[in-house]
Design brief:
Number of domains of chain A: 3
Number of strands of chain A: 15
CATH topology of the largest domain in chain A: D-Maltodextrin-Binding Protein, domain 2
Oligomer: homodimer
Number of helices of chain A: 9
Largest interface: A-B, 36 and 36 residues
CATH architecture of the largest domain in chain A: 3-Layer(aba) Sandwich
Structural class of chain A: alpha/beta
Helix content of chain A: 25-40%
CATH class of the largest domain in chain A: Alpha Beta
């Protein structure tokens, strides 16, 4: 079995892939779109992609790739707590560290920690936490803020674990496959409404009348003109779900069911 | 009068600011959050911010800054057509150009054009189209893909106008101020629903029952735990709008009215 993930090794997607995959080969991809395309072409059996972060919101690249994809379904959903760590190529004390490297979001997530402990350092922004780890491997008296997987992956030292300022930072991942899953308490669907007043209200009404709980709604541009949207909703499955989805066809231009999980 | 915009000069925000501001001083800011903060502190009278793009969707930094802001209102909305251009420091022919610099999104928007006319060049990604223009000012046989304002701003030559692959690329901007606007056919509000089944459906029902057309809904994470959201909606104003918003207070934890425009 082959599982695709968003590389390079040492990203949070890699950590999620390691946690999920027990005996699968991990295959690295450069973009989320490439992962979904690789599933479609049978290059890999499954792909793991980030779908939502508790601070940054929906991952638009994943949602847009799912809108464009043909036969891709959700097999499972998993949540990863985002933990940041201070890592270097040797066991430095705080006052020995001259520079820090990390992704802007990771730096923002540790702002208080840096101010309290490392206010004297020069801060360098790079495009991923894994790249920051690669960067400091050969740089003395420098540290990075990154995933703990980077310690093992790049042969580095953990200076301090869990340095993020708040603990509400979680990312939800979806494991995607080509085969529709028929079992599970959740279901996600993508739809676009007809261009008439109250169309979205009527769609939500279909769920409400059938006691189906809507746990999330995300809107994305239809990529035609401003003002036309495609929606992604997460629903809790009950025995009326198939009927409700069938009824939606009257209110929607198109519906894509991403399966149960 | 002072108008804040997202710099540097030569960005699409700058183009929108020039189009809007007839006799205002343009003040450059580094982030959208800084613009909104500057309005709150009376450093500037108005600020112009991107709120939505027809291909990329809602501008999350703007929405999140408005959620966190205290007394900021919309004065006007305007739409800018996003046009990309091939620009260099001299009037080169296609086969003389060795390298191209631009932002990844602008490069993606001109992919077909590059393949047809410039398939031999090396492509360099930089963090903004305005930066790309700065970069090629001193580089011979290099071109950038950028806003036409860069020609004047950095003393460059226009090689070809309107090179984007499709014409559906538009960005909507909002002009923000500290004073609530009481006039206008549109209104935008931010709210979070109570954590009960059907809460969002009931909110939309309040609009539907009062013949108020909802033209856009955007969800953002509440930044607490996964699964709690804040919504931004655009509505068409009618004579029942004030009553409808008053009724919402029963369904919502909090409501912020961004004013009419």
């Amino acid at each position: 079995m082959k599982l695709g993930f968003l590389g390079p090794k040492g990203t949070f997607s890699y950590e999620a892939a390691c946690e999920y995959a027990k005996d699968q080969d991990l295959i690295e991809y450069k973009t989320i779109k490439d992962i979904i395309f690789a599933i479609e072409k049978n290059e890999i059996d499954e792909g793991i992609v980030p779908i939502e972060n508790s601070l940054q919101g929906g991952v638009t690249e994943t949602i847009d790739s799912l809108i464009e994809s043909k036969e891709i379904f959700i097999k499972r959903s998993m949540i990863l707590k985002i933990k940041q760590n201070l890592i270097a190529n040797s066991n430095y004390k705080f006052d020995e560290i001259k520079e820090i490297y990390s992704h802007p979001q990771a730096l923002a997530q540790c702002r208080n920690y840096i101010e309290e402990n490392l206010h004297h350092v020069t801060i360098n922004q790079v495009s991923s936490t894994a790249l920051a780890a690669k960067e400091i491997k050969t740089k003395n008296y420098c540290a990075c803020i990154a995933n703990e997987k980077c310690v093992e992956e790049y042969g580095l030292c953990m200076l301090e674990k869990d340095i993020q300022d708040n603990d509400f930072n979680q990312t939800k991942f979806w494991i995607l496959t080509k085969k529709e899953n028929q079992q599970g308490s959740k279901i996600s669907i993508i739809f676009s409404t007809k261009n008439k007043s109250g169309a979205l209200y009527n769609v939500l009404g279909e769920f409400y009348k059938n006691d189906i709980n809507l746990t999330k709604i995300e809107s994305r541009p239809a990529k035609t003109v401003l003002g036309e949207y495609i929606f992604l909703v997460d629903l809790e499955v009950n025995d009326k779900i198939d009927k409700a989805i069938e009824n939606l066809k009257n209110e929607c231009n198109y519906i894509k069911v991403l399966g149960r999980y």
